[in-house]
């Protein structure tokens, strides 16, 4: 992606072998690689046996109709039972499942027994509302325990949850509800962010004005702010869930029963509904959570500092940790509310031992300075994780030293919404860590770096990352669009999964991820499609044409830079219009998609076939010398664009 800085280079050459202590007691040792290499399917079967199945499977993998995989064929289990009841039945009901902390400082401690009871009540409420197995339920919530309770209640009755990140707009929510055909929305009046209540219900009301599949809206009271109410449709969570019995017997579903849909950005404007199913998904999230983080359920306090509204939250706040009977921390708000040491205060208060977060956050902490974490006792930490984008070696070292006290291994986990669980990552008791590299395919996972023709490349050559074998937690399809599923992931290289990431292997065979190779940006670890932002911009009456690129950004990884051509009538609008366009994108997609910069230009660089040359725009946005302009229809276009720049970069 970007040039490595010299400090980064020095950092990248350092090595961190596991301590003897960790290597000696780690959940998995070097032998797992061997085991998985010799008998890949047998290895995944062992992983599946860590779960409780009502009925054993007849076949581990059915790959007779690629790329449509079936794992643990014929097996039956209940995902919520595996996350809850079985731990209570085994005598761990009093163990804390979540130490929840609200942004204003209110806290809740929820044990496995309490969580089980709450989920049973919510499941009974869903049934009373006529939700059936296979129905889709939209969840649009802040980071509160009810979000997890709602997800597990769906899983318990076989309904398919579709969580929409609370930062998404009414438009984004509406299109997802329509695409999924959701029959119910679970939301809250609002949540706390940056020290103030932030409303959610108005977006739901707005979205439902444009959709027709939803029968009811269940509203959790969190902020007590005023909400508009549609009689007959809207119900308070406290009423409808509160009056239910806390007994509910979980029914087992097929291993391939759909568990959830999670929308993610692709290369077109329409987000893809990634479908995950039950048995294979839970197998791999539970096993990776246990192996990658060396999770010890009796002693660890585990914290994924991410939002439940993303796949990281699904797999490593909810399903993985609960399946492994972890004690987790869940925090509602932003890291600097009310002060920049909030996270470290939480680590100190709960004695967090394992922390998992994104490089963008680590770089923000770097900016705030090491004095902030130094003011807290972080000695409980024993392992750190990173996810969402490549972690630059400098940030890796900072994390290692100033958060991990020089003693905690860092696992840099590469995976995607589509993969469901970790795919390339070091193992803490095994791997000689290399800052900046995700290093090794997880046992039972096969990854390669290939050229455009799908031929495996020699070491130290940049190419494309592919996954050559199906894996248990892989997406099963794009909701309602099998063709798009095939075409997006499985057409370019035939029988191999195309991840969309550039990569190279070094001389040790370690994999370095180099960022997206498609028109997808990675902003603070969130995937945003350039096309999606472009179509939001051209939907504005003042905009004739738009081109969007991701420009490297010291904090967020990439920042969104938009080039727009205005319609004739709007030609002379300046600052005000730019502000208005930024707002417009926030409204259409959400604050995360709001461009860092919008440049009004007369023309866009295009090839003779009419394709916008984003590469050149990226050069401009990153203040670089222009690359090759010879394929442009009119090379003077770039001069015109550059003239516009001084004020904007
Ligand atoms: C894309 C997937 C995985 C959950 C969060 C993001 C990038 C993710 C890493 C990493 C380098 C990474 C890739 C990938 N990515 N983790 N450790 N090193 N790149 O999920 O929104 O589906 O995005 O995030 O580009 O394709 P997502």
From TrEMBL:
The modification N6-acetyllysine is found at residue 611. Its cofactor is Mg(2+). CoA binds at residues 193-196, 312, 524, 586. Residues 532-611 form the AMP-binding enzyme C-terminal domain. InterPro entries: Ac_CoA_lig, ACAS_N, AMP-bd_C, AMP-bd_C_sf, AMP-dep_synth/lig_dom, ANL_N_sf. Residues 1-28 are annotated as: Disordered. One of its GO terms (biological process) is acetyl-CoA biosynthetic process from acetate. Mg(2+) binds at residues 538, 540, 543. Keywords: Acetylation, ATP-binding, Ligase, Magnesium, Metal-binding, Nucleotide-binding. One of its GO terms (molecular function) is ATP binding. Residues 90-471 form the AMP-dependent synthetase/ligase domain. Its EC number is 6.2.1.1. This is Acetyl-coenzyme A synthetase. The gene is acsA.
């Amino acid at each position: 992606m970007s040039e490595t800085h010299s400090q980064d280079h020095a950092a990248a050459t350092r090595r961190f072998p596991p301590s003897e202590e960790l290597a000696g007691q780690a959940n998995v040792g070097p032998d797992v690689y061997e085991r998985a290499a010799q008998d890949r399917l047998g290895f995944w079967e062992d992983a599946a046996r860590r779960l409780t199945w009502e009925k054993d499977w007849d076949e581990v993998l059915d790959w007779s109709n690629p790329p449509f995989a079936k794992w643990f064929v014929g097996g039956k289990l209940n995902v919520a039972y595996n996350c809850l009841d079985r731990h209570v039945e085994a005598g761990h009901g009093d163990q804390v499942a979540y130490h929840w902390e609200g942004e204003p400082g209110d806290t809740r401690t929820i044990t496995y027994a309490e969580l089980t009871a709450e989920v049973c009540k919510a499941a009974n409420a869903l049934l009373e509302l006529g939700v059936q197995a296979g129905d889709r339920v939209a969840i649009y919530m802040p980071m509160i325990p009810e979000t997890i309770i709602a997800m597990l209640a769906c899983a318990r009755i076989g309904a398919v949850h579709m969580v929409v990140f609370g930062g998404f707009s009414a438009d984004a929510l509406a299109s997802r509800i329509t695409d999924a055909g959701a029959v119910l929305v679970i939301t809250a009046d609002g949540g706390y962010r940056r020290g103030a209540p932030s409303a959610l219900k108005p977006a739901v009301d707005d979205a439902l004005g444009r959709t027709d599949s939803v029968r009811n809206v269940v509203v959790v009271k969190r902020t007590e702010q005023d909400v508009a109410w549609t009689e007959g449709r809207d119900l308070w969570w406290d009423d409808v869930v509160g009056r239910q019995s806390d007994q509910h017997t979980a029914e087992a579903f097929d291993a391939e029963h759909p568990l959830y849909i999670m929308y993610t950005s692709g290369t077109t404007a329409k987000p893809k509904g990634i479908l995950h199913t039950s048995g294979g998904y839970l197998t791999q999230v539970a096993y990776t959570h246990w192996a990658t983080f060396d999770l010890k359920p009796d002693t660890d306090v585990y914290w994924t500092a991410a939002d439940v509204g993303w796949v990281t939250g699904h797999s490593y706040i909810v399903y993985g940790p609960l399946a492994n009977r972890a004690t987790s921390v869940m925090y509602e708000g932003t890291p600097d509310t009310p002060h920049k040491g909030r996270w470290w205060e939480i680590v100190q208060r709960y004695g967090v031992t394992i922390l998992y977060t994104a490089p963008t956050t680590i770089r923000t902490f770097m900016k705030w300075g090491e004095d902030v974490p130094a003011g807290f006792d972080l000695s409980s930490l024993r392992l750190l994780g990173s996810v969402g984008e490549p972690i630059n070696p400098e940030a890796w070292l900072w994390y290692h030293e100033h958060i991990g006290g020089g003693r905690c291994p860092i696992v840099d986990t590469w995976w995607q919404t589509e993969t469901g669980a970790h795919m390339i990552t070091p193992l803490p008791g095994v791997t000689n860590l290399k800052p900046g590299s995700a290093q090794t395919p997880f046992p039972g996972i096969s990854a390669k770096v290939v050229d455009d023709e799908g031929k495996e490349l020699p070491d130290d050559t940049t190419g494309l990352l592919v996954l050559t074998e199906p894996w248990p937690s892989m997406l099963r399809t794009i909701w309602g669009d099998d063709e798009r599923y095939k075409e997006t992931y499985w057409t370019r290289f035939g029988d191999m999964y195309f991840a969309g990431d550039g990569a190279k292997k070094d001389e040790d065979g370690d994999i370095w991820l180099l960022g997206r190779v498609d028109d997808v940006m990675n902003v603070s670890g969130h995937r945003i499609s350039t096309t999606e932002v472009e179509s939001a911009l051209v939907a504005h009456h003042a905009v004739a044409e738009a081109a969007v690129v991701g420009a490297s950004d010291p904090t967020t990884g990439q920042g969104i830079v938009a080039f727009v051509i205005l319609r004739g009538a709007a030609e002379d609008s300046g600052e005000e219009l730019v502000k208005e366009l930024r707002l417009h994108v926030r409204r259409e997609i959400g604050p995360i998609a709001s461009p860092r910069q919008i440049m009004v230009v007369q023309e866009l660089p295009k090839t003779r076939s009419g394709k916008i040359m984003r590469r050149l725009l990226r050069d401009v946005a990153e203040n670089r010398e222009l690359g090759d302009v010879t394929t442009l229809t009119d090379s003077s276009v770039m001069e015109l664009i550059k003239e516009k720049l001084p004020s904007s970069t």
